[in-house]
Specification:
Blueprint (H helix, E strand, L loop, with lengths): L2 E5 L3 E3 L4 E8 L7 E7 L6 E6 L6 E3 L7 E6 L4 E6 L8 E8 L16 E2 L3 E6 L1
């Protein structure tokens, strides 16, 4: 069983950048495909990005494509989300998640495919 801890969220102005990190422990990190999700106030949790266990494949929601980049460092048991050109609508709690199910977009976007979740980190983008 893997434990996940996100960090890096903060208040940033529109147009700015942030890098979120998600540190994993308690499992074989390289065995998991990883995802980032977000949940804004009053809205359902939604998929942001995913990366395969070796980092060879990535997949993004249309709303963040070209602005966000997911990456991982298996030696550090960490997955990252680089967020550029941030918009106020990116304001949300960001969660990382892990799954041992196959990396098969677009099914990879499904929340139910992920078995382990972090506690989330708040990202606020001011206009």
């Amino acid at each position: 069983q893997v434990q996940l801890v996100e960090s890096g969220g903060e208040l940033v102005q529109a147009g700015g950048s942030l890098r979120l990190s998600c540190a994993a422990s308690g499992g074989t990190f390289s065995a998991y495909n990883m995802g980032w999700f977000r949940q804004a106030p009053g809205k359902e949790r939604e998929f942001v990005a995913a990366i395969s266990w070796r980092g060879a494949s990535t997949y993004y929601a249309d709303s963040v494509k070209g602005r966000f980049t997911i990456s991982r460092d298996n030696a550090k048991n960490t997955v990252y989300l680089q967020m550029n050109s941030l918009k106020p609508e990116d304001t949300a709690i960001y969660y990382c998640a892990a799954t041992r199910r196959g990396f098969t977009p677009p099914q990879t976007m499904g929340i139910i495919r992920y078995d382990y979740w972090g506690q989330g980190t708040q990202v606020t983008v001011s206009s």
